[in-house]
Specification:
The complex is a heterodimer of chains A (548) and B (68). Chain A is α/β, with parallel strands linked by helices and 548 residues long. Helix content of chain A is 29%, strand content 25%. In chain A, the strands form 5 sheets. In chain A, strands 1, 2, 8, 9, 10, 11, 19 and 20 form an 8-stranded mixed β-sheet that branches. Chain A has a 7-stranded mixed β-sheet with strand order 6-5-14-15-16-13-17, sandwiched between helices. The relative contact order of chain A is 0.12. Chain B is mainly alpha-helical and 68 residues long. Classes of the chains: A alpha/beta (548), B mainly alpha (68).
């Protein structure tokens, strides 16, 4: 069926089979989207990292296909956003039909002035291949394929892993273990850790078909279409003339039967017409669950992605939230490993990403309750909303075919410094930096200038050279990026030709924003104050005593 | 802040009640349920105020259920 040529990554014999190795700093388990992102981020910071994966290729089947703007921005920071954005199909418009009629339409990015689109659709195997290429270019990163973790124990001092390979078993020890081994997380099972939540009583058929048609690059969702009555259908465009069709089947469907081509083809014919020419690339029947671990940090173990939380696919909140998990985790782990702060900073990974997971679970559960109503009355209200949406704008806002992934605003984070002045707009402490076009030596987009360390974005020349130097030379350095004004040679100056930086940040002369290494706002002021910035930096790095 | 009005507020209550019943004439139970749901959604949007809606939902649920 599949025409994709899956790479086969080379297995290599572990040196630890012959002689025990020294304790490593950090090991990542799982070379999926989340594990690879974590490893690339660590290695790009110069931290040696070993990745273990039990397989030797990328995702079988297209699986996760919708990658959000924030994911692309994180990958831009990691040096592999461009190939993914270039290969993917960009989209931002979603259309929701009831029967044959358009009930609701949304635009996920109605404004211009952003480097990346709201979403790109890309087969997970292409996504992973791009990450593996980037990983292989980093000398600090070692990937071991067909090395399966069979046991994990951890103490105050270390994590110990047992690893099985075709050449025999060996042991590894490390300070920190980043667990990205997926929804069925063998490590979570080995340790008997909780994974609370609910399973939904419904089946869905995914079919990826190859079809040369010129439908628009939009997300299209049908409730009760004539070609698949009483159920929902979702259509997404992918590169290489591949289309993703997702049919709701109901709880009574037989998953084994529904996977057979003779069952799939009539469904596709009904949808696409008797004359449509297509081939099935990949098909799967799935159910879904909404669950999360109670805590993502267990001592020296840090769980991320599907291993830590599971959502329904309607909203593209799985892979995208996993990538945000490790974006949040890695800079903190790097500071802890460098001895710049205590391991307590890692508890804020737990605080922040558990809150984000709850937001994703809430949205995902609400979408699921709309798509698969759990009671007759829930179904009646759903149908009432859809019926009203044809004529009444208010009801369109209630139609829920998936609320698509947006980065979590970490508003309640203990790392934020509360505002002491009034600001307009969305860039509250905890929000992820809004991009904007700029001019300047480090790139044409604001996010290029923020990079992966602490940055103070200053509107105008209110930060004196001595103050900028003190920030840059601190143990946890902070670069000054200045918007407009006269140009001292000691800092990155960006121009704001369209005024969008000032508009999106409510920037006035003197305004300063402090960004964390994951590009979230953690403090802002109307005038530069060196002491306030130092205190906010101490707070954002978990050095509580200094922040008082 | 607006609170839920539970004192008489409809000018001609008997007229309203008759129209409400007539609204459901010739409908199956399923159709009636749909019409009621649409009516609730239209009225809820008209009210808008989340506190009032929550108070109305709580009042509607008072003395009902959970199912045995």
């Amino acid at each position: 069926m599949s025409t994709h040529n899956y790479p086969k990554y080379e297995y290599r014999r572990a040196p630890e089979l012959d002689a025990p190795g020294r304790q490593r700093g950090v090991i990542v388990v799982g070379a999926g989207p989340v594990g690879l992102t974590a490893a690339i981020d660590l290695a790009q910071r110069g931290i040696p990292v070993l990745v273990l994966d039990d397989d030797d290729t990328v995702s079988m089947g297209s699986r996760a296909i919708c990658y959000s703007k924030r994911t692309l921005e994180i990958l831009d920071r990691l040096g592999c956003g461009e190939p993914i954005a270039a290969k993917g199909v960009g989209w931002k418009v979603g259309k929701v039909y009831h029967g044959n009629e358009l009930a609701y339409q949304f635009d996920l990015l109605p404004e211009t002035g952003h480097r990346r689109p709201a979403f790109v659709n890309l087969q997970q195997y292409h996504f992973e291949e791009a990450l593996v290429r980037r990983a292989n270019a980093l000398p600090a990163l070692e990937l071991r394929w067909r090395h399966r973790v069979t046991n994990v124990t951890y103490s105050q001092d270390r994590v110990t892993l047992a690893v099985a390979t075709e050449d025999g078993d060996y042991a590894l020890t490390c300070d920190w273990l980043v667990v990205c081994d997926g929804a069925r997380s063998p490590i979570r099972h080995m340790l008997g850790l909780d994974f609370e939540g609910q399973a939904f009583r419904d089946h869905f058929l995914i079919a990826d078909i190859r079809m040369a048609v010129d439908f628009p690059a939009e997300r299209r969702f049908w409730f009760d279409p004539p070609f698949h009555p009483n159920q929902s259908v979702l259509l997404h465009r992918q590169p290489d003339d591949i289309w993703r069709v997702d049919f709701q089947l109901g709880w009574d469907a037989d998953p084994e039967l529904e996977k057979k081509p003779e069952r799939i083809l009539p469904r596709l014919r009904a949808m696409l017409g008797p004359d449509a020419r297509f081939e099935i690339e990949w098909a799967s029947v799935y159910t879904f669950q909404c669950r999360r671990m109670q805590k993502f940090r267990h001592g020296r173990l840090l769980f991320a992605g599907d291993a830590a939380h599971l959502v329904s696919p309607f909203g593209a909140r799985g892979a995208n939230s996993g990538i945000q998990d490790v974006d949040n985790l890695v800079w903190k782990l790097a500071l802890v490993m460098a001895g710049e702060t205590t391991a307590a900073l890692l508890d804020t990974y737990d605080d922040e990403r558990v809150a984000a997971a709850d937001e994703n679970l809430r949205n995902s559960t609400r979408s699921t309750d709309f798509i698969t109503p759990k009671s007759a009355m829930s179904r009646t209200f759903r149908d009432a909303v859809l019926a009203l949406a044809r004529r009444h704008p208010f009801a369109r806002r209630l139609v829920n075919s998936g609320r698509l992934s947006v980065p979590a605003v970490l508003a309640a984070s203990p790392l934020n410094t509360p505002d002491t002045a009034a600001f307009a707009g969305a860039m509250v402490p905890g929000a992820v930096a809004a991009d904007a076009p700029v001019t300047g030596p480090s790139g044409a987009w604001l996010l290029d200038h923020l990079g992966d360390a602490f940055v103070l974005l200053a509107f105008g020349d209110g930060v004196a050279p001595a103050a900028a130097r003190a920030l840059a030379e601190a143990p946890v350095p902070c670069r000054v990026v200045q918007v407009g004004g006269a140009a001292p040679a000691d800092r990155d100056i960006v121009g704001d030709p369209e005024g969008l930086v000032a508009a999106r940040y409510d920037g006035q002369g003197g305004t300063c924003y402090l960004f964390r290494p994951d590009q979230h706002v953690c403090a802002r002021w109307r005038a530069f104050d060196a002491k306030a910035v130092r205190t906010a930096l101490a707070r954002a790095t978990g050095r509580i005593e200094e922040a008082r | 802040m607006t609170t839920l009005v539970t004192d008489p507020n409809i000018g001609a209550p008997d007229d309203f009640y008759e129209e409400l019943i007539l609204l459901h004439r010739d409908l199956t139970d399923a159709q009636s349920a749909l019409v009621n749901a649409k009516l609730i959604l239209l009225l809820a949007n008209h009210v808008g105020d989340a506190g009032v809606l929550r108070a109305a939902m709580a009042a509607a649920r008072e003395d009902v259920g959970p199912s045995p």
